[in-house]
Amino acid sequence: MTATRRIAVLSAGLSSPSSTRLLADRLAAATGAALAGRGVDAEIEVVEVRDHAQAVVSATLTRFPGPELDRAIRTVTGADAVIAVSPTFNASYSGLFKSFLDLIEPGALDGVPVLIGATGGSERHSLVLDHALRPLFSYLHAVVVPTGVYAASADWGSGDAALPARIERAGQELAELLAARPARPALDDGFAVDADFEDLLRSLD
Hints:
Elements (H helix, E strand, L loop, with lengths): L2 E9 L7 H18 L3 E9 L4 H10 L4 H11 L3 E9 L2 E2 L1 H8 L10 E8 L7 H12 L3 E2 L4 E4 L9 H18 L17 H7 L2
Parallel strand pairs: 1-2, 1-3, 3-5, 5-6, 5-7
Antiparallel strand pairs: 3-4
Helix pairs in contact: 1-6, 2-4
């Protein structure tokens, strides 16, 4: 029986389409190909943070995510690995990206392999990987692969092999981590994500 690993792709691009999503998709494809070479299937699910922007703000205030946001959070916390890509704003990850991660319960990403990526207009913002994203996921006790991938605007369509090579190397590193460990158990239903908020309050009476 072929082994399968669940990979959550967390993309925080603000436009559609976006270079952030493009990088996220290429990282996922590279990881899937590297896993296939090890006899492991990849089950990939993408979470577009922009699709949950209003729900993220509401949940930040109320601590009650709506059904769709709750499913998105569970996709990330229930995965065997996470590929997380954010656009760069003021030398750091986007506020929406951070607000989504703030909704994740402490310990939910303990030991989970994470591949980090970022996009921006200039190469000078590449330090966002090691100065912002890597410390963030280290704080969450995730296992961040050594190679992070930054893509500046000039990298797309330039014909330079540096970006594809870095994407492939990062995918190989994540695949190696994934293939060496058992799949995580699937999350149970837990919080009733389809329940109405008033029903939840009544259940506390």
